[in-house]
Amino acid sequence: MGTDKRLDAYYKLIDLLIKKGIRKKDPTYYAEAFNYLERARARAFLDSLELSKVVFNESISQELRYQEIEIMNEISNLYTKLLNPELSGEQKQQILQKLDAADQKLEALKREIRINYPAYANLRYPEFVTASLVQKKIIPADTLVIAYLLSPDSSYAFAMTNKSLKVYSISSLSEIRQKTKEYLGRLTDPSNVDFSLGYDLSKILIEPALGGSKIKRIVIIPDDILHFLPFETLRMGKDGNGSWLIENYSLSYAPSLTSLKEIIERKTGQKQRPKKMLLAVGDPSFKLNGDADLTNGVTLKSFYEPGVDINLERLRFSLQEVDKIATYFPKKKAEILLAENASEENLKNHKLDDFRIVHFATHCLIDDKKPARSSIVLRLDPDPQEDGLLQTREIFNLKFNADLVTLSACQTAYGTLIKGEGIEGLSRAFFYAGASSLILSLWPINDQATSQLMDRFYYYLKSRYSVEKALQKAKLELINSGTLSHPYYWGGFIADGHTTKAVVAASSFVWIFVVSGGAVGALLFIWLRNGRNGYAKTFRRARPNA
């Protein structure tokens, strides 16, 4: 699975069915092509979701579980040693060799579990969705789903409502990559005022699918470089001078419709509901070599890329962000972990499936070569029980029951791009662990602007808006603020997964108090130009090569 050879077979079959449908003027061929697209795209993601059910609902042998824990602890200890900035090159190389050996042991153990654990062998995977099933049971009347297929030979978009299915050809893969890369550069440059490329991309990717006046929301199933494009920032209007797409529609993203169906059904089938509303983690402290708390940040030697330093600046506004978010929930229903308490040990010692919302406001380290090592940075100190890096491999072993996990950090939507299957990284791990929806970022974010965006997002979330609608309204406030109207400040955050649910129920509002809803621009003063820049690969490295 995941090989180009397997996917090429699917892609050629899809192309054949579409061309046959055009030649015979028979839309049933389009539906069949969509069915094969779902099969090609959903397999690896469904493997993760289904295996999570086994982990949570079946008893694995204690011997194998203890072996897994021991290897995990070994890996954490090795990462703790790598954090030491005084390591010599030879010492670092020795630790990295031990780390690779431990990774290999962990992979071997996983293979042994798959072979010897009967529940894995007897696992029954859910059926892939078909076009007719999607239209009857998954797509509401106000929703347009657009699924993209990009390949060197032919590229298509499937536009589906609950009553129609349309397929249209789009530009070549090379052209879409070139235009998207250039447009991302403009979006992330606060001094840029030319967004005409957003109109060009809109004409290629979106406009052929639009038509019904009833459409209020769009679900994007991206492919290839489109995984890195926030469709909210596309332009509606001649020469790119019209409105942003987000001003006309709320948007969300999903790995596939089969995966989205599985996420929704998994949540619906759970009997236990979270007892608390919010667990928020932010502003972790950094102590190394016995030094006092480094309030201005810390520089580490990178174990992600030789010769590169990791600069972890203190995120001063993450403290304000977490404190403000917590005020929207009853004190008995919310818990915050800050500074010394924002540790990996503390987080893992919590009953995480007791929280409806989990929010992280900190740094993120992205390894796009070994996605299992991508991490959320928590408290760092010289002698912890844990290394302070909540890695993707560890998130897979956590148990969430959250309607929403917010990753308020740099490039949390990034990871390894697997052809035809999407991003392997933090997002897949959190879905696996039990999250229903995610808020993710696509580029290095501005600390202060993000704090403001998250404040307004949670304001609307507690006002009973759905996840995607609350994010849309928060973005519209920034767009209309003047000060933060550039898409650099609001365009990077996207909603992924089951985003149509109102996370905060009506019964939670007996405690509502007056919250200022004034214009965002009036609340802001001197803006930090330095983003929430934990170590992350540059766009040029993180994106697929053209």
Summary?
The protein is about 40% helix and about 15% strand. It is built from 17 helices and 20 strands. The chain has helices at about 5-25, 30-55, 60-80, 90-115, 120, 130-140, 175-185, 195-205, 255-270, 315-325, 345-350, 390-395, 425-435, 445-460, 465-480, 485-490, 540, and strands at about 145-150, 155-160, 165-170, 215-220, 235, 245, 250-255, 275-285, 300, 310, 335-340, 355-360, 365, 375, 390, 405-410, 415-420, 420-425, 435-440, 495.
Protein architecture, described:
With 546 residues, this protein is an alpha/beta fold. It contains 17 helices and 20 strands. The protein has helices at residues 4-24, 28-57, 62-82, 89-116, 118-121, 131-138, 173-187, 196-205, 257-268, 316-326, 344-349, 392-395, 426-433, 447-462, 467-479, 487-490, 539-542; strands at residues 143-149, 156-160, 165-169, 217-221, 235-236, 243-244, 250-253, 276-284, 298-301, 309-312, 334-339, 355-361, 364-365, 375-377, 389-391, 404-408, 415-418, 422-425, 437-441, 493-497. The strands form six sheets. The protein has a six-stranded mixed sheet with strand order 11-8-12-16-19-20, with helices on both faces. It has a five-stranded mixed sheet with strand order 3-2-1-4-7. Strands 13-14-15 form a three-stranded antiparallel sheet. Helix 2 (28-57) packs across helix 13 (426-433), helix 7 runs antiparallel to helix 8 and helix 14 (447-462) packs across helix 15 (467-479). 46% of the residues are buried. The model is unreliable at 53-59, 118-126 and 507-546 (pLDDT under 50).
